What does this fold into?
Amino acid sequence: MKNAEATKERILEAAMEEFSSYGIAGARVDRIAKNAGCNKNMIYIYFENKETLFTTVLQNNLTRVYEEIFTPDDLPGYAARVFDFAISHPDLFRLMAWYGLEQKVVNLTERASVQQKKIKQLLNAQSAGLVGTTFTPGFLLTAIMALATAWTPTNPFGPSYDPDGVKKPSETRDAIAKVISLITKGEEGISN
It folds into this structure.
């Protein structure tokens, strides 16, 4: 059993590299098998097809962002953690770029389910007075993700130049957290 799990893990690692480099259409199961050190048939036994393998790789990695680091009562901190995660995992954001280009191939129902769970948690935080109510929970999540991932190399508005003279990622992270803090306070926080 340990051997099977180790093989699956090697396949997932090799698939992450392959899909983030070539997308779904350009990825080759032969290369994944070679890089995982396994027989190509093992991939089909464990994952059925290339699209299922892609979905598994993406879901496994997105779960970390969507569930493990989410804190509805500290949205500025969450934005900072998403920024740190995005900067330290460029392969995942290349994978997300490919997903965006090829999304007709894969539907991430689990992603939508987790997003709905986060929206409910934010709604509860708003009801408890922990988060301002000027913006809807869905808008807040989108704003956080957009700002926190804007500096990834795959973003067309990413770090190809530095117009504001911000040289350190920590300065960018702090600025993102400050903006999210203002947004989550609502109108009172923005007007001050």
Summary: The chain has ten helices and no strands.
